[in-house]
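User: Can you write out an input/output pair for a complex, sequences first and structure second?

Assistant: Here is one pair. Inputs:
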Amino acid sequence: MIIVTKSNVSEPELANIRQRVESLGLKTHITRGSHRVVIGCVGDDAALSEIPLLALAGVESVTPILRPYKLASREFGHPDEPTVVRIAPGVAFGGRAIQVIAGPCSVEGSEMLLETAIAVKDAGATLLRGGAYKPRTSPYAFQGMGEAALELLAATRAETGLPIVTEVMDTRQVDTVCRYADMLQIGARNMQNFALLAEVGRTKKPVLLKRGLSATIKELLMAAEYVMASGNQDVVLCERGIRTFETATRNTLDVAAIPVLKEETHLPVIVDPSHAGGRAALVAPLAFAAIAAGADGLIIEVHPHPEDARSDGDQSLDFAAFVDVMTRIGPFAEAAGRTMRAPSHERA
Ligand code: PEP
Ligand code: MN
């Protein structure tokens, strides 16, 4: 941390600033300029958050030098090695292989779920998604089938072998969802629900952490830090589009977030082109862009009849459209130096 003083700082004010910083176990180094004094604070930066430094008399500005996320950062976490988050035998995020999570926005019944699972697996998906508890903008909209949906997801896993990813919205649901899911999704609207982050951090289930609608990359990494600081290191980050002034798309896919996150963190990064674009026609180009930019995977909404979907039908792909994306994405994966499970018609 670097503290710059006001130009008229007095000696007693300077002594007080130093004394407050040193009382937390840090050392101070003073550089006197012609007008101001620069105080370099050496030691545990995090401890300094206990002092409202800008409120101390004589302080002009405070600049942190180190990243506030430690476990999630490359700097302190793993400088060289990316983290590989294993979900099931042969299904891991962060290795060379791209993983595709696909399935309906909401679980609506057993037949549609099984039919979708078989279709997406055949097309190359390696995990099945499906919402049991849905965060809907309107309290009058379909809220999901709850535990009955979790049972259907588990039955579908038994039938197809696909591990399941589903959202947990509330700390009170964590135990129940853990009994069924292979990966816990924290939705965009809950990215800063710190109690929920800490609770999933106390489980042993891998966490899919979606970026908040208006969250910065730093805030996303701080949310991951919450999960990791509670003991769970298996976090996969998901860029799903952010709110901007643009109204032509549901959200704006922040493609640059992928390489920026890759620089900052060792955690795997995947992309949700469905919620980013908000329209089925945008899913393929956004998915291609994501893979080309270095994403470790995708999460895509697929429904047997998007026109009848109880949530997010506009952005859901039917089976043919999903096969088409999975077929056309191959060259992008190859160009990015990645491997991918090919659709069955292309497998030997
Ligand atoms: C979802 O995956 O269906 C969902 C609600 O996503 P998000 O939290 O990104 O809006
Ligand atoms: Mn959805």
